[in-house]
Amino acid sequence: MRLKGLISYLFPEQASVSAREKLFSGIGGFIGIFLVAWFTHQVAHPGHGPIIIASMGASAVLLFGVTHGPLSQPWALVGGNLISAFIGVLCARYIPEFYLAAATAVGVAIFVMYWLRCLHPPGGATALLAVIGGRQIHHLGFGYVFTLVAVNVGIMLLTAWVFNNVMPGRRYPAQKRRAAPPPEKAAAVAPERRHLHEDIMAALRDMDSFIDITAEDIERIYTSVTIHAQQRQLGETVCRDIMTRQVVFVRPETSLQETWNILIRQGIRGMPVVDAKRRVVGMVAITDFLKHTDWDWRAKCSTRLRHLLSRQSRLKTDAPRRAAHIMTTTVVKTHEDTPVVELFVAFAEKRINHLPVVDGELRLVGIVTRLDLLHLFYRGDRRPAAA
């Protein structure tokens, strides 16, 4: 037990990272430092050699190894290094005691970076170098901030921005939180999703400690954990196990009146539109009818729909007459062997109610609705009780 406990302290559990991601991190660090060293060598005074501050090595670890973390973002890189350099120069100039100047530079830099929300660990080394860097650094004065550090940081920032946006699976800067939906659409968002970000931020405040992860990444982790939990509960269930096989559909040339009659007769809110080879080319729903009515809020929806359907034969040629004229052509589809757990993300993120299921040749073979997923969970909850 003691050996096991010691190992757990020395080698704490970490999430597994792919070999590709490790390789990208190493390549990015190589390119970043190479460009900084090469450029500073070109502009350095003859005889002085390349001027590159050691803290750029630590910044490279964050920019290319922890790309999406708060400590790696542009303001953290730029603000953390430049502000810390400025503090370091002040301490080197006005605090004669070497030990006190070094300690003050690092301590104040940490406090100010925290305060200005640009915490960047290499900034501590940048501040320290201004004190211990010797005569060459001291001679630069505030030029250390606005030339040496600024040039190093600028090259690293540009390299990180290009490299991390070229490599697959990366983004830089980290994606900002999407704006809240407008009031008219807010009701369509599940309350738990609408308040998830606020709940995460409240939990982070409760911890009262800096966590090197963004709220957006925590949301992604939460979604992924939920998917894995649902996968464990649902087992190997795939779309073909729950989909409705007798699908009601229309053709692009089906008239609006007939399309409307089918929706009402079948008691459904939407259905696929398929071509002669039974390939899905669109989806038509009740909302698509409403989009093409004369939008007079004083009239009832039924009145507007009757007006739309009655004017088909007598209106101008560009008036909607067929299903093809009002259908949604950007259709989210899935396949028969898609695990059911993946459908939860599709329904939530795309905000759809119907998901056509296609075979290997993209022909319609079934459809899955939100209600099918609810029925699946209802049956899943009942099976253990029966046992």
Task: Note down, in words, how this protein is organized.
With 387 residues, the protein is mainly α. The protein has three domains: 18-166, no CATH class; 189-234, no CATH class; 240-286 and 321-386, CBS-domain, CATH 3.10.580.10. The protein has 19 helices and five strands. It has helices at residues 2-10, 19-43, 55-65, 74-94, 98-115, 122-132, 135-140, 143-166, 183-186, 191-194, 196-207, 215-234, 239-242, 256-266, 286-291, 301-310, 323-326, 341-350, 370-386, and strands spanning 270-274, 280-285, 334-335, 354-358, 364-369. The strands form two sheets. Strands 3-4-5 form a three-stranded mixed sheet. A two-stranded antiparallel ribbon has the order 1-2.
Give the helices and strands, then pairings.
Layout: H1 2-10, H2 19-43, H3 55-65, H4 74-94, H5 98-115, H6 122-132, H7 135-140, H8 143-166, H9 183-186, H10 191-194, H11 196-207, H12 215-234, H13 239-242, H14 256-266, E1 270-274, E2 280-285, H15 286-291, H16 301-310, H17 323-326, E3 334-335, H18 341-350, E4 354-358, E5 364-369, H19 370-386
Parallel strand pairs: 3-4
Antiparallel strand pairs: 1-2, 4-5
Helix pairs in contact: 2-3, 2-8, 3-6, 3-8, 4-5, 4-6, 4-8, 5-6, 11-12, 12-18
The biggest beta sheet reads:
3 strands, mixed
Poorly predicted regions are 177-191, 312-317, 381-387
Mean pLDDT: 80
Order of helices and strands: HHHHHHHHHHHHHHEEHHHEHEEH
Question: Count of helical segments?
Answer: 19
Number of strands: 5
Numbering strands along the chain, what is their spatial order in the largest sheet?
3-4-5
How large is the radius of gyration? 30 Å
Percentage beta strand = 5-15%
Distance between the termini: 39 Å
How many domains is the backbone divided into?
3
Helix content range of the residues, please?
55-70%
Any idea what the shape is?
elongated
Going by helix content, strand content and strand pairing, the class is mainly alpha
